[in-house]
Amino acid sequence: MPRLTPPQVAAALKPSRTPAQLANDARLRSRRSTPAIHVKQNLTGDQDVRSVPQHNISISTTGDAEATRSPIEVIDPLKFESKAADEKFMNEMVEIQVEADDDPNAPLFIPCGHQGVTQYIRRGQPQTVKRKFLYSLIAAKSARLACAFGKDQNGQEFNRLQGASRTTHRVTIIRDTDKGRQAYLKWMHEA
User: Fold this and answer.
1) Which residues does 36 contact at the CB level (< 8 Å), separation at least 6?
2) Domain ranges of the chain
3) In the chain, pLDDT over 90 holds for what percent of residues?
4) Following DSSP, what letter does each residue of 127-159 receive, concatenated?
């Protein structure tokens, strides 16, 4: 069998991709030239766009599938005053104390989060925190389920799953405004 020369080998082997295709592949792999697609998300379907909050989400067209939200939330001008009043109310400082847990292995510091912001609260000591973290402590629930199964008096099998939920943390309010105490009572009745 005769030996092939290098030009004959090169001619016999076709490249899998053309130089233009290789350049396009390199362009798509580079993060600098990655175009971002901006999507306006209407959360409620067919409602009037002016009355629905809009969220800008950037979706990467190459690489890992990831969606990043804009840190700025656009609020409808008609609802701005009530939203600003709610935000002011939720950012007021209140003095609370989270009671110690019966479990000896319970953590001393409780991570409490609200809208992506984490605040650690120490058990057993009075602390001044923003009201939004008090709301998150009240909203934290633990659920226990009890399952009963067997046969009733007619011989029919039954399986009952009964659940009870309660707030995870026992919180005492030391200092708050009258409006804040009313909101606290409302939140506790919702719990």
Assistant:
1) 58, 59, 60, 61
2) 19-74, 85-190
3) 16
4) EEEEHHHHHHHHH-EEEEEEEEEEE-TTS-EEE
Provide the pLDDT for residue 31: 56
CB 25 within 8 A of CB 17: yes
The two three-digit tokens of residue 178, written as one number: 């009258």
Sorted by sequence, the CB contacts under 8 Å of residue 93 that are 6+ apart come out as 128, 129, 130, 131
Indicate whether 23 pLDDT > 60: yes
For the chain, the residue count is 191
Confidence at residue 93, expressed as pLDDT on a 0 to 100 scale? 93
Per-position b or e across 11-49, b if 16+ CB within 10 A of its CB = eeeeeeeeeeeeeeeeeeeeeeeeeeeeeeeeeeeeeee
* pLDDT, average across residues 70-79: 75
Residues in Cβ contact with 99 at an 8 Å cutoff, skipping those fewer than 6 apart: 123, 124, 169, 170, 171, 172
Q: What is the DSSP letter of 169?
A: S
Output the CA–CA distances (angstroms, integers) from residue 102 to 45, 87, 106, 140, in the order listed: 47, 34, 8, 17
Whether the predicted pLDDT of 44 surpasses 60: no
Beta strands 93-98 and 127-130 are: antiparallel
At 83-140, the pLDDT tens digits run: 889 989 999 999 999 988 888 888 889 888 888 888 899 998 999 999 999 999 888 8
